[in-house]
């Protein structure tokens, strides 16, 4: 009997071993693509926005007022215009930029910047036309956005249905984030000619969501609008932006996890973030990566941080409503990081924000 049991045990081990060999290895065991990191160009002054253009060039704003095209193959830079009425104070100046998706037929460049409006520091959205050499025919499509020397938001994004989303900060006046009549502390949504879409939450109002402190990243992926938002001394956030939702500021930081916050959240339809960081890392620009060139980064938000000086991968779940994993791609090497742009070639371009000899860094698969 004992001999039969031993033989049976050996057979079980053999069968188990055979099943293990024939099973597919888990995806996580596959080798990751090695990443090469280099400086593409330098001697920049506070770059703020990087956009991959339809001409396969990197379009860039610098806070002092310059709009340039950067060649991704050799880093050469062509200044298109220095916007004359930009006023750069503190963290203000020339900030966000978006290009019309059908650029060959509609060569429109949308800029968000701060200027002096009869003695009041103000932000506006201006649509320029690219004539192949410079930017011409400025048209103001939204004005009277409060500005300050910090908390200006000012990231721009055009959705597939041709709506322009604009992030605005509280402009150092916290209470305005909860006011539906203020353009501060909001995600705004307008048509590309500056008119207000008929399906916005409030008739004739550009408001789309509210209760924001200082959102500086916007990405639209698979029908979802993601934002990154600076917290005060705690709770930087990654949010999914939903029409007419309240994101809590200044009464709520991050999740509704304190008693006073819970009361406010229940009474005010507050949307909680996908992720928060305490202490804060100063989240800024981000983009979405879904290219085979660096396969381990697929289905991820790529996030630049200022205080933390780190480039992060935020791996999304299949539904896009959660972050499965957070990884550092590099830390501390290049100082403060302001924005991220993913090229059609699968390379990742990152702008620093140090105020002296700023750079564009490129990450590519080896």
From TrEMBL:
<feature type="domain" description="Glucose/Sorbosone dehydrogenase">
    <location>
        <begin position="45"/>
        <end position="356"/>
    </location>
</feature>
<protein>
    <submittedName>
        <fullName>Dehydrogenase, PQQ-dependent, s-GDH family</fullName>
    </submittedName>
</protein>
<dbReference type="InterPro" id="IPR011041">
    <property type="entry name" value="Quinoprot_gluc/sorb_DH_b-prop"/>
</dbReference>
<dbReference type="InterPro" id="IPR012938">
    <property type="entry name" value="Glc/Sorbosone_DH"/>
</dbReference>
<dbReference type="InterPro" id="IPR011042">
    <property type="entry name" value="6-blade_b-propeller_TolB-like"/>
</dbReference>
<dbReference type="Pfam" id="PF07995">
    <property type="entry name" value="GSDH"/>
</dbReference>
């Amino acid at each position: 009997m004992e001999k039969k049991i031993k033989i049976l045990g050996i057979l079980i081990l053999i069968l188990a071993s055979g099943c293990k060999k024939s099973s597919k290895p888990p995806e996580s065991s596959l080798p990751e693509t090695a990443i090469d990191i280099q400086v593409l160009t330098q001697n920049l002054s506070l770059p703020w926005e990087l956009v991959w253009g339809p001409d396969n060039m990197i379009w860039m704003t610098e806070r002092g007022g310059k709009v340039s095209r950067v060649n991704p193959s050799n880093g050469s830079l062509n200044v298109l215009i220095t916007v004359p009425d930009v006023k750069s104070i503190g963290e203000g100046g020339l900030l966000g930029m978006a290009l019309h998706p059908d650029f060959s037929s509609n060569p429109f460049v949308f800029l968000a910047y701060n200027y002096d409006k009869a003695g009041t520091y103000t932000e506006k959205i201006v649509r320029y036309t690219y004539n192949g050499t410079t930017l011409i025919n400025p048209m103001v499509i939204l004005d009277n956005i409060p500005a300050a020397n910090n908390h200006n938001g000012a990231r721009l994004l055009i959705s597939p249905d041709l709506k322009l989303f604009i992030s605005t900060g509280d402009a150092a006046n916290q209470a305005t984030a909860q006011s539906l009549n203020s353009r501060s502390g909001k995600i705004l949504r307008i048509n590309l000619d500056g008119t207000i879409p008929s399906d916005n939450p409030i008739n004739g109002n550009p408001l789309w969501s509210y209760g924001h402190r200082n959102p500086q990243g916007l990405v639209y992926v698979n029908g979802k609008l993601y934002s990154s938002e600076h917290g005060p001394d705690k709770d930087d956030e990654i949010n999914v932006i939903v029409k007419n939702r309240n994101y809590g500021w200044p009464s709520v930081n991050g999740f509704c996890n304190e008693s006073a916050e819970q009361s406010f959240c229940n009474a005010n339809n507050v949307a909680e973030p996908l992720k928060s960081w305490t202490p804060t890392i100063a989240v800024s620009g981000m983009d979405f990566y879904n290219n085979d060139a660096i396969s381990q980064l697929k289905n991820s938000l790529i996030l630049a941080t200022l205080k933390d000086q780190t480039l992060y991968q935020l791996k999304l779940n299949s539904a896009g409503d959660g972050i499965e994993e957070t990884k550092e791609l590099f830390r501390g090497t290049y100082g403060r990081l302001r924005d991220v742009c993913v090229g059609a070639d699968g390379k990742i371009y990152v702008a620093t924000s140090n105020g002296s000899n700023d750079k564009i860094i490129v990450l590519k698969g080896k």
